[in-house]
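Journal club prep — side note

Before the paper discussion, L.F. wants everyone to see what a predicted structure for a comparable chain looks like in token form. Sequence:
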Amino acid sequence: MSIVVRDVLEHELDSVLALNNAAGPAILPLDAARLRHFYETAEYFRVAERDGTLAGFLIGVGGHADHDSSNFRWFRERHPAFFYIDRIVVASRRRGGGVGRAFYADAQSYAELRYPQMACEVFLDGSNDPVLLFHGSFGFREVGQHVMADTGMRAAMLMKELCSYPWVNQTYGKNLPNVPWTAARQLPGDQLAARPTGTAL
């Protein structure tokens, strides 16, 4: 069956929370209030469906976001403009079935219209070689390491250049064509209309 990637719906937040907190040590836990904050503010918050059931989710924010993650701050201190993948979770029964690649392809198609780079981190706990290999095969490269002060966890900080961005930015700037696949997520209360979508270089 096909994989469908779409914006999260409010009634799915409990299921997203359960997926996150069942993902194991590679994903930091969330509480309902934190997840609600992402729902209300994250410019990219999408879920994947496979066979009619929730198969995973991905949350991303631009480098201009008011985001308190120390990993996010690490990137912002070193890079002027980027799209940050805060977390991606795929249900254990769906891992290895293409859901992660579908998410990354979708996130890149969103980000490359607005940002010159994508950023994320992978925790280095001694068992994450498959995750590092996955990111490397998708074009991410390590640009440093960071130890989170509150958890003591060390992360490989990864970035990927988005080669389409310079042409898109030069040709369209922030005035992207009004077609469905270029649309940004509509936040609750239509807050997105007042938010920047990227940084022109």
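L.F.'s comment for the group: Residues 3-119 form a domain with the Aminopeptidase fold (CATH 3.40.630.30). Keep this in mind when we get to the figures.
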